[in-house]
Amino acid sequence: MKLNPIRSELAPDVRAELVTLLNLLLADASDLRSHAKHAHWNVKGLTFLQLHELFDRAAGEADTWIDDLAERAVQLGGVALGTVRLAALVTRLPEFPGGSIEGPAAVAALTESLAAFARAMRAAVEQATRLGDANTADLCTEVSRAADKLIWLLGSHLPETVR
Ligand SMILES: [Fe+2]
Known about the structure:
Blueprint: H1 12-42, E1 43-44, H2 48-75, H3 84-90, E2 101-102, H4 103-130, H5 134-155
Helix pairs in contact: 1-2, 1-3, 1-4, 2-5, 4-5
The structure holds fe (ii) ion.
Fe (ii) ion binds next to loops.
């Protein structure tokens, strides 16, 4: 990968690995945002309004993560692979159900997406730490903590047996 010249303490091969990592996470986050918006628009049922708003909050948080991950990739001298088409090629999230979706099914599906996202983010913390980039590790830790919180908020809408 060809990097842009930047002033950095990190070696170019290290930065190249970090940019690859950040672009994978960017794709996951873009996919996650689309899942949350799909749920926001298409959820049905008695808890519609609560879930409609909670799913939009998740999409809003994903938007913030997308921006932070993309800009970190560029700060390291890389290019942010930011289009939906590029994200679709490499996302590691499960497919989100299409069409209208009942509240509990929507919560369960978005929880699966968030869990996959949080897992990837935790692995990224380890990888960035191993590469000696505390700032990327810190960003990924922050995102991972926020994803865990959303999983908790969503889980609170489900019966205990299916959380
Ligand atoms: Fe909306």
